[in-house]
TrEMBL record:
Major localization class: membrane
Annotated compartments: Membrane
SUPFAM superfamilies hit by this protein: Voltage-gated potassium channels (SSF81324)
Protein's recorded name: Voltage-dependent L-type calcium channel subunit alpha
Residues passing through the membrane, by range: 78-96, 116-139, 208-227, 270-293, 428-446, 466-486, 498-524, 544-574, 669-696, 748-768, 780-799
Acidic residues bias spans: 366-379
Compositional bias (Basic and acidic residues): 309-331
Amino acid sequence: MPTSETESVNTENVSGEGENQGCCGSLWCWWRRRGATKAGPSGCRRWGQAISKSKLSRRWRRWNRFSRRRCRAAVKSVTFYWLVIVLVFLNTLTISSEHYDQPDWLTQIQDIANKVLLALFTCEMLVKMYSLGLQAYFVSLFNRFDCFVVCGGITETILVELEIMSPLGISVFRCVRLLRIFKVTRHWTSLSNLVASLLNSMKSIASLLLLLFLFIIIFSLLGMQLFGGKFNFDETQTKRSTFDNFPQALLTVFQILTGEDWNAVMYDGIMAYGGPSSSGMIVCIYFIILFICDNLADAESLNTAQKEEAEEKERKKIARKESLENKKNNKPEVNQIANSDNKVTIDDYREEDEDKDPYPPCDVPVGEEEEEEEEDEPEVPAGPRPRRISELNMKEKITPIPEGSAFFILSKTNPIRVGCHKLINHHIFTNLILVFIMLSSAALAAEDPIRSHSFRNTILGYFDYAFTAIFTVEILLKMTTFGAFLHKGAFCRNYFNLLDMLVVGVSLVSFGIQSSAISVVKILRVLRVLRPLRAINRAKGLKHVVQCVFVAIRTIGNIMIVTTLLQFMFACIGVQLFKGKFYRCTDEAKSNPEECRGLFILYKDGDVDNPVVRERIWQNSDFNFDNVLSAMMALFTVSTFEGWPALLYKAIDSNGENVGPIYNYRVEISIFFIIYIIIVAFFMMNIFVGFVIVTFQEQGEKEYKNCELDKNQRQCVEYALKARPLRRYIPKNPYQYKFWYVVNSSPFEYMMFVLIMLNTLCLAMQHYEQSKMFNDAMDILNMVFTGVFTVEMVLKVIAFKPKTEEQILAEL
């Protein structure tokens, strides 16, 4: 080969290329010795082309490795990441800008922006495939999702441009791109952990959703057999929640599971079989069983989650035991144990000891009523009850006087400051301030908002002066004790104290400018409603609740972000599906704005003898999807289950933009609402509630953070402290013993139980417009039952002796 070509080779794999060069030289000598002249000049050319092709392939492989390495570094860089995030936000802005009746220039800009963004996302996908390789690219779930969205967008664009299908504006595929915004979780650890937990939770409830779907199918088929075609008993009304066909039955059962207007469906089912006075009440069993199955599905999901958690904990314990046994068998030296990476912590030993707990959790309930215990042991005098552990910790510690001077004058040992400290920490002073807070709140509630200068408001105004003066003196005493705000532990360094100061300051300022006519006075007087909040700083229980609320608000911030993003995505999809399609004319016979003009006659309640003349108006629904904000508001009402079936059937009847509705025109569109309710209303809203409950439990356990016992052990100790020996009362008098034996016998108890059930049945048989004979029979039975229960009371009084009034009342 020429020397100029060999010198241009890259320095990579020098040894390999030298070996190839030596190999090629030896082959060339061998070929010349074998008589290359016989082959002629064509054989030389073929051999030279083969050598040049191998050299070009090596150069291509080196360049390919170099470019893929550079592309991989660029793809994994922070700059590329934030560039993609910016494109996602631009895509989000483009999607959210679409609305009903938008100008043509905005539509053109949106189409161009969608095509440009689709091309950029396609380039991103191709660059990632080239740099990472197909196998490594499709390992990531987000990459597979991106590929699916991009391919769907390309397919849709081709079909629209070739006029194979009508344009869908910004299609559902383009709206699904909004899920890419979750890529921001890569540098947001808490949100990333939350999204991962939500995805794992969704995987775990997949079986529950399948079970729920089977329940819905079964009850839909059963409802079609029971109520199919029987909800048409009222000709003046058209029922929407029916069982006339399978899709409608599925929607009706799903509506009952959400709890919205389920009673109306049940009443329609009762009336379909003749009403409550006939066999219609039997159909209530259908709805009762449906609710029970729904609750059983929820309970099964909780039980499955608890089993999985218990199994995971058991596996961890077994793994720790095996690691401990391996360490014991290996017998490492002390230095090796100290330098080992797999250290056994105190928590590991603590969990190890939990398996060998000599005091296992008790199954006996802690909160037994003392009245039952006293009933079983009437002769044992009740001594002082041992205090519960929670009661021992409820005593609030008195805050000492902080270091530093108050108002730069009063030192820590000043008698005035010490006296103020004793006064504000006295229980009488604290209770008196609470009474004044409640009285001031009652005075605010008693004011007359209509006649501001009435005699009652004048009297209450004088009381307001007195309460404000008392609260001002309280704040001054506390500032004298703790100081203002310059040193640690000062009065103004506590948020609850600042709330007190705000309320009192608002009252003082409103008094100072009361004669002015400006509107600030009204605002300040409105802020006086915060006065009841001053009780929070005086009641420890309320203070803990407020602290838990603030902690829960900080905790659910990430959940709120995820829920808002999901709701925003569904709102964008809803705009594409329903924008401008919820308009309708007040005259149902007209289906477009041009026809919806003039007057029409409406027959009230279907009575032809009661006509009413109305004007035709082309109006929109109160909840619509004309823009993203209106769509989010409509979906929020759906997530609360309040009136969502009405919005569902408006969507089903929607036809086109500026076109009136058609009955059951698009039943398949209900899938959009069902998916939204399952993901947002069922899943995310319950996570909100779960986080709040967990936060309150964690805050409650912080009270025992210094206690070495766990919750079950504390309950056992509390039960042991509260337990008392039980004694059974047996009379010594032989005649009284006979009565006692009869009263405590099983036949007597069963007989009284049957009589109680018969009495309850007689009371339940009473109804409206019952006959005189029936009334007389009920009165006689009532007197008979009263006499029997009186005899029972007398027998028990004789058997147990009327020792105390409380025990007699307990027997009653």
